[in-house]
Amino acid sequence: MDRHRQHWGFPQWVAYLREKDIPIMPRSKAAIEALDVDNVSPREMAGLVMCDPFLSLRLLRRAERRRSTTLGHDTTTILGAVQQVGVRGLVESAAESPLCDDANLGLSACEARAVMSASIALHWAGHRADVAPEEVAFAALLAEIGELMLWAFEPGLPQRALDELHAGRAARSVQAQQQTAGFSFKQLSLGLIEAWELPPLIAQLVKGADTPRTNIARIASDAARHILTNPRNPALPSDVIAIRAFLPGVTWESLLSTLPIDDDYREAVLATVSGSGEDVPTL
Asked: Do residues 61 and 126 both lie within one domain?
């Protein structure tokens, strides 16, 4: 990290990162270049985009610029962004994009967490009729964008936070971030979402007001973090119990089915949560 940036506060980091040309993962660029653009559906493209939070962000910003000229509705889903710019617009956006360094282990871990969060959130949110699952998944995917931008452009800062955590000088990731950067990386995500003038709904879902859909996104992110920290993480039953408070009619088995964990540990978690005696409220 440049010496003058060591003393930057939250506003300086937002101003610095908001001007960066957002990169995408190399695998995304390769996959898009290999497409037959005349025979691919927007929904197929949306599935590809959902596997890369950088590409999702890049596409959303392009869609919002296009929307502002046509006075359309806010773009709040990945499919909506694809439909707004078109398949060829997505191909152009990927062609113009710089590439992330996927050898950066911190970036790769954070990016994997965001993708897993979105996948879990999409499945869980699909159980509520009053929630748009794609919006919840999009918010879960972008919730890590502040940390991802740091890993891409100033990896020394998130690495310092990891070192603080692993050294035991902080009990949780948020505490480590506050101690090393002076702000949480979630705050940075929200600051960038505002600076980029992304749809207000995205900011509301990332911010985490106490509503079913924001809680689904938050708990999905917690579950992804726990799984990637330890595939047999003892914190996982608590995540499953927490999500069922917002999905009271859903079986434990269905909630667990989307989690990428070994079958034997899935059975162990099921035994724990089904015997928890939790009185789950009806919302």
From this structure: no
